[in-house]
Amino acid sequence: MKIAIAQMNCIVGDIAGNVAQIIAYSQQAKAQGASLVVTPELSLCGYPPEDLLLRDDFLQACARGLKQLCEETQGLTLIVGHPHQVGEFCYNAASVIQHGKILATYHKHSLPNYSVFDEKRYFAAGAHALVFEHQDVNIGVLICADVWEPAPALKAKAAGAQLLIALNASPFHIEKHRTRLEVLRERVAETNLPIMYINMVGGQDELVFDGGSFVLSDTGAITHHLNAFEQALAIVDCQAAMPLTGKVAPHLSLEASVYQALTLGLHDYVRKNGFPGVVLGLSGGIDSALTLAIAVDALGAEQVHAVLMSSEFTANMSVDDAVEMANILGVKHSLIPIVTLFEHFRSALSTEFAGLPFDTTEENLQARIRGMLLMALSNKFGSIVVTTGNKSEMAVGYCTLYGDMAGGFALLKDVPKTLVYKLSQYRNSLSQVIPQRVITRPPSAELRENQLDQDSLPPYEILDGIIEAYVEDDLSRADIIAQGYQAADVSRVMKLIDRNEYKRRQAPVGVRITDRGFGKDRRYPITVKLDFDTLFTE
């Protein structure tokens, strides 16, 4: 028996396009001798469809797409993920199509309602196992979160399953794939059954689905592993219910996986939303350098426009390094100094600001001038502005609303500063595109004389550690201090994080690469009075 795994890049709402893609994969699989084709979770409509699921016309279109698949996938068996309306209830479903008809439909049991998931808003939970016979093998069907707990797999085994197939739309974050393998091996140990794990690939707003579909034998050994972050069709040969050994893709390092996630996330956001390219501010600093490298890798140099907007505080080496990198990558780059514009703004405000010292107001004004210029270029030529700020800056508000935050996509929004350095070194290990001085020199916003980031912030190693503990791990002030951080640093960083929630609410969407990003993951009130120095103390 040959089973085809279709690791698809679906587009939310593009039912016709997704159906055409499923048909194309089915035809390829049939030509390679496969008798069964498996697609990811909600492959018919894309994941997550969110409030599209509240529309009757959308659900009706999904039903028509399913009917088309029945008509155009004759001669093989197809398992397809789709929403399924039954009376007043909607289910996250997987249907088995055979001989032009729906043989059976499975309804997802476990509906995740945490982190980036809110399936209980849209779906009712199923309760029954689905086991169907294919070439004398009883195959049990599961959907994504069903494999994260024992009961659904055990129900399928009790119903006679000899092989489990799980359809997934499981988004990427650091170490997510290792966790998947651990969880699936637990299901194998409990059921003594082989499992095929089929995952979606592609970017969808802040989410990136990394693919990496795999097959585990009844002992938990990996028999097949598809490349991550790539569309693919893989044929799995089975002896009865047992998968035979096939191709296993090499493991990706942390830096490689994050870099590929960012690249795919940007590529798909730009392409799926129909932008002709991107425009970004190139400062000569490491954040914009990494953003430029990823943008070129994602879209090609011809689709990237870098803009250098020097001020009186911009060091000559910053301009030199930015120009050097733009030339290395072969991107269009423009030099638009903001010195005169800044003088005009200060002159216009001179009466209002008379007698007041230069402070963050003037610093932010420079950032806003740059944001205004980038948005003008975007408006004129249609390219989307990609902002360059990182998670460390977003966390503590070391960014300017309507300035460096102005844009349509925040590529590094979930990337801590310490990881920015690692990713830059990783990219240069492939080919030298970021000038080494950009990586080694102390970071600076260059908004005043002799400015360094560390004048305003704790060292990034300390800052990122506190951010991870507070934002990603939900640790208390006392617990973070117990990790070895100074109490003053902890209190300050926690207050800055909460105080700047209003900025993050207005930030563009950006790729999520940690298990708690600033987006759907973390929902904190803007208006809140909470003193962590005195909270729960006697």
Poorly predicted runs? none
Rounded to an integer, what's the Rg over CA atoms?
A: 26 Å
The CATH topology label of the largest domain is Nitrilase/N-carbamoyl-D-aminoacid amidohydrolase
Count of domains? 2
Quaternary organisation: single chain
Write out the strand line-up for the largest beta sheet, numbering strands in chain order: 5-4-3-2-1-14-15
CATH superfamily of the largest domain: Carbon-nitrogen hydrolase
- The CATH class name of the largest domain reads Alpha Beta
Biggest sheet architecture: 7 strands, mixed
Question: How many DSSP E strands?
Answer: 20
Strand content: 15-25%
Which structural category do the helix and sheet elements fall into?
alpha/beta
Mean of residue pLDDT?
Answer: 94
| Count of helical regions | 16
Rounded to the nearest angstrom, the distance between the terminal CA atoms is 68 Å
Structural summary, described in words:
- By secondary structure, the protein is an alpha/beta fold.
- The protein folds into two domains: 251 residues, Nitrilase/N-carbamoyl-D-aminoacid amidohydrolase, CATH 3.60.110; 198 residues, 3-Layer(aba) Sandwich (Rossmann fold), CATH 3.40.50.620.
- The chain is built from 16 helices and 20 strands.
- Strands 5-4-3-2-1-14-15 form a seven-stranded mixed beta sheet, covered by helices on one side. The chain has a six-stranded mixed beta sheet with strand order 6-7-8-9-12-13, covered by helices on one side.
- Strand 4 and strand 5 form a beta hairpin.
- Helix 6 crosses helix 11.
- The chain is elongated and about 85 Å long.
